[in-house]
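Aim 2 progress update. The chain analyzed this quarter is reproduced below.
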Amino acid sequence: MNAQRASLNPVLRGAVLALAAAGLPALASAQGTMGVRLQSGLEVRGVSFKAGLGIKDVSEFAVPFGAIWNASPRLGIDIGVRYASVSRTPEAGGSKETIAGPTDTQLRLAYQVIPDVMVLTVAANLPTGKTKLSADELVAAGVVASELIPFPVQSFGSGTNVTTGLAVAVPFAGWAFGVGGSIRVSTAYTPLATVDSTYKPGSELRFRVGADRVVGQGRVSLGFTYSSFADDEFGGARIFQPGRRYITQGTWSFPVGNLGLALYAWDLYRQPGTVVVGGSSTEKQNVLTVGAAASVQVGRNVLRPQLEYRVHSAGVSKLEAAGHLLSLSARYQLSLSERLALLPAVRFDTGNIVSSAATVGFTGWGLSVGLRAAM
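Predicted structure tokens:
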């Protein structure tokens, strides 16, 4: 019995931390080697569009910084912030729309109330990011907030918010089953430079269930997340009721000889929202992603190639094709020492966006280098 529980501990640990992260943008593990880890680097992203969308190209430059402190075997704390610069070039010529500045700072805490069984999380979004945007800045910020094309930074500032969550996982018949929930409460902020009115996002309630188990020499993880929102407010008045969101996820990882392989898929479905004044509905949306990632040991170093395909669909009355994306990327983890690692990466994208007028193709590229240090 003790041997069986020992074999389940890694599964429980992974399940409970994944469930706890349901309400957080990221989560540092509260277990592992005690000490501090620092992460920084440089990310550059570019996307070029063919004629018909009104955009010639978009580029983004970002410098991330993060620190993770495993204060004890039960307590993990991390903090992260980025500096980013975005430029959008119109198709018809003219000046570029740009936005640059720091993003909001995210501070997170994860405490294992019962090791490998129950995790309490608290996260705060601190308003260090850029708000009160001009018209040009608003256009540049909006183009990187894409459902289809991922950018390193997709939001600069969204005011203060606090998220609290609790997750529990228990073993049963070789599986780790779990449930997690969180609530996010936001304060108001001023999004526009030309309008002296505040915007307050509605509170979010998020609920997640998951299952995780060892299968042979591999591992299977399944998850489902449900989110609902209170009304958004502008100038103190209710203006918008966001639609509910449903996220389904699945991963199967297993070895093939000396190669580690992971197959994954996730689907995000957004119900249509409702504009309070007039009662009109926004589009419903769905994003389906499937992919495969490999891990190749090269001495002390690791090569991680990845292939991913993404389909975006949207519509008011019914879902229709809105675009697709095919991405090929590779990351190399170069161990410079026991405490220092360099992580260069490259990616290439191709796809299209379906608009009301035409289907517009695009190509994208990305380069990054990360630096990870343990103290």
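The chain has one domain: 2-374. The first strand starts at residue 35 and ends at 49. These observations will guide the mutagenesis experiments scheduled for the next reporting period.
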